[in-house]
Amino acid sequence: MTASDTTAQAPGPKPLCDACQGIQRNWRKAPGHPELAQGLNRKEPRRHGQVTITEYQCERCGTHWDLENDKNNLHAGWSVVAR
After folding, report:
1. Residue 24 and which of 2, 32, 42, 80 are 20 to 30 A apart at CA?
2. Average pLDDT over residues 18-41
């Protein structure tokens, strides 16, 4: 077995599409892209109160995203959950 055979057998996560690569992560008010389908939302507790987290999935590459809406945290925003 060669090195190229082992990489072909061990599938990694699918790469992000160009639109998903362009999303600025962990920054409040960063835009998503038009091919993100909105899913469920949930409330999670934080030190200062509850925040809303909305789930999205890219229709092109299948990446699952969470969008945290927290006005008190400048670094809340988009984060990849699964690919």
Report:
1. 42
2. 94
pTM exceeding the 0.85 threshold for the entire prediction: no
6 in a structural domain:
no
Question: Is 72 contained in some domain?
Answer: yes
Q: How far apart are CA 50 and CA 48, in angstroms?
A: 7
pLDDT in tens, 47-83: 889 999 999 999 999 999 999 999 888 899 999 998 7
The CA-based dihedral angle spanning residues 41, 43, 44, 49, taken in that order and rounded to the nearest 10 degrees:
140
What phi and psi values does residue 18 have, to the nearest 5 degrees? Answer: -60, -40
Structural domain for 63, as ranges: 28-83
Question: What residues are paired with 45 via a beta bridge?
Answer: 50
